[in-house]
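From the pipeline queue, job 12 of 40. The input is one protein chain; the requested action is below.

Action: predict structure.
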Amino acid sequence: MIRQLLRLGSTLALVGASPGLLAQDGERSVLRRSFAEVATPIPPFPEGRFEPRPGETLAWIGGTETFDLDRHGFLEAGFHLAWPGQALRWRNLAWQGDTVYHQARPLHYYTQKGDSQPGSIPDHRERTEPGIVFVCFGKMESLEGAERLPDFVAAYAKLLDDLAPLTGRIVLVEPTPFFWSGPAASLADERNRVLSRYIEAIETLAKERNLLFLRASATAEWNAGHSDNGVHLNGAGHRTFAVEALRHFGFTGRLPEAPPALSDAIERKNHLWQQYYRPTNWAFLFGDRQHVPASRDVEKREERWFVREIDSLPALIAESEADIQRYAKEAAQ
């Protein structure tokens, strides 16, 4: 099992690794335990057709480029404008540096068993409801070369096995290409040749498991201006990705321009969500320093003020989502 030292806040946590492996004392794998458990899996898309259900959660897992979907809200706004009456909920579970092989998280992150020191409590944050899960891996893994493709396929398959008990509505997302920009621009063609083999493997996994495959690059006219470093999409790149993704799912025409009120509400909601999903001062919240005086209210010593603040965020997120849904309906009229 891969091990990595991760410092978040003042906690130094030794966490582990590969999908399906138990990361901490019998706990489920990192990505699986970010989701709420269900009695039976959410049924797959009817007739293999992408069709969000009212109130459904759209969860995204992946690395840096996927995390950046929250910084560039084009795709999220596009989903709300394409399906304005569905009250969709967007949850970005991506984490910078995540690969299909390894997802590092702080100690006791979404675990059932918390820190053993007196006064500590387990992580009780709300977990993401399973609905549609978009899986975005393959680009960074391809940098290790074609010789690691069997390892990639095995790890990807194990991740899908982990998610299968939760939902059948899983979308495997084609990685975006490497670009002819940045310090490694001259390597883009060679890297894309290797990446194409990874993409073929991902599409094969989708076919074998009757999952949807999002080919967002089929008609995109990618160019060097879509990335500043040659690897990750910039704002222009994310706009193009949004157009292609929505077109793939049946939305015709140009991407509608989100009204400022909708964009602002999405930005506010994503800021609150990231505070909730990736809270700072983790050691004092649910980590290994909950027992120290600094984790408690200065006047009411029996109260944990970090916990009090994190528990206030779901209601604020819900308020922002209500605004998003209202502005999307108004824009669609």
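Job complete. DSSP finds nine helices and seven strands in the chain.
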